[in-house]
Amino acid sequence: MPLIPKGIVKKISQRYIAGDSIADAIRVAKQLESVNVVATIDVLGEFKTLKEQVEREKKETIRLLHAIKEHQLKSYLSIKLTSIGMDIDEDYCFENLLEIVTIASEEGIFVRLDMENSPYTSKTLDMYRKIREKGFSNIGVVIQAYLKRSEADIQSLLEYKPSIRLCKGIYVESADIAFKDPDHIRTNYKKLYHLLIENGAYSCLATHDVALIDYCLQDIEKQQFSKEQFEFQMLLGVKEEERTKIVQKGHTMRVYIPFGEDWYGYSTRRLKENPQIALYVTKALFRLG
Asked: Domain locations in the chain?
């Protein structure tokens, strides 16, 4: 990845990042709603270590909440705790999160706490619990199926009747704490899916793995789960044909829309993760795209 020129990464990232501004994110969200797809929008920026950086991130996030309300979108907010001060001070981070969730609640908007790499797993879940104990229900979390701890984490959250986005996981983690074999990860994903949906958690099935999507669809139909119990989620610009098929079946599909100037870190992680995007890079490098 370091060998790929930033200009190429920028060009390719335009497929799956809305742009630099809130206006770009709103435009893409409206486009998606026109084809019966809803969104979760993220202001890109993580691992902030200076308060002035965090204050800028928070201000932009609050502006985004007001824009979602103003444009009457069905979108909600995704946010990473390291963008609002987790690496500076946990109490400071919580104060920022509480302010954002309070404003979101007033605007009728849901907030998803994105999950970051393993040093932040417990901290993120603790922040979720603290917000719920403040009486807010417009907040959810993410569980990563490749982490061996995830079953226990879900069990610990079920009392909240939580909204949980279930994904495979993207960060590089040690084999001591994470499953490495793709089949093991798929098996655990299925296990966690059942744990969520059968225990009343709102299950956000975030995956581009067609085999997993088909498995969940077949089980949902077999068990006759209400469409109010789950939704599917994908990244912007990835597996659009599969996304359309799910929408045509009448299921809720939510697409993750990132935007902002801090696009490079997000882009490189996605390029590493997704062979389809890597193909676009190869074509661009050889001027075939």
From this structure: 1-17+264-289, 21-262
